[in-house]
Write a structure and sequence with these properties.
Elements (H helix, E strand, L loop, with lengths): L1 H59 L3 H5 L2 E7 L5 H14 E15 L6 E14 L7 E14 L2 E10 L13 E3 L3
Parallel strand pairs: 1-5
Antiparallel strand pairs: 2-3, 2-6, 3-4, 4-5
């Protein structure tokens, strides 16, 4: 009889421990989902920044094919260029300029949907390029750019790119943005 009582008491202890663990797992699962949603936004924001950092390096090194891997087939810019026209423009630029130096500064980012598959980036952007020929001028571009990106085939691709004038366009920068300091 004593053995039976010890066996039942032990079973009750094991059962109560299992119930506590399962109740804790349910709360932990809920917390994990909330954390994963938050970390998903942070993870995607980091990937977008890394994609733009990579693009900067590829253009400075004149690595056209790799740079175009970051550009979507649906690409359009303010000048109306599609991806093929952008490729021709970059080929011409790479052939006419010895070096291209890109500087990026203030960086503002927002996701345009709740699934974190589309994003909009505003960034201070400067380019200085020295020509091979003395008949060409040194290229100097300075201002803000607005970049739309989309998650395609597991990576971020640029869908649209254009100049942005914070004081004139849409009343300045959007209200809900993730602000990250420039490099």
């Amino acid at each position: 009889m004593i053995k039976l009582c010890r066996y039942i008491a032990g079973a009750l202890v094991v059962l109560s421990v299992c119930c506590c663990v399962l109740a804790g797992c349910a709360a932990t699962d809920r917390q994990m989902r909330l954390r994963s949603q938050l970390s998903m936004a942070e993870r995607e924001a980091y990937e977008i920044k890394a994609t733009l950092d990579r693009l900067e390096v590829l253009v400075e090194r004149k690595r056209l094919e790799e740079a175009l891997d970051i550009v979507s087939d649906r690409y359009r810019d303010q000048q109306g260029r599609d991806r093929d026209a952008l490729m021709r423009y970059l080929q011409r630029m790479f052939s006419q300029y010895k070096y291209i130096n890109i500087s990026r500064g203030d960086y503002f980012q927002q996701f345009t949907d709740d699934s974190y598959r589309e994003a909009r980036v505003f960034e201070r952007f400067s380019v200085v390029a020295e020509p091979y020929s003395p008949t060409l001028y040194t290229l100097r571009i300075d201002g803000y750019v607005e970049i739309y990106l989309s998650k395609e085939n597991g990576g971020w691709k640029i869908v649209r790119w254009g100049q942005f004038y914070p004081a004139r366009d849409k009343g300045g920068l959007p209200e809900r943005v993730v602000i990250q300091p420039g490099r």
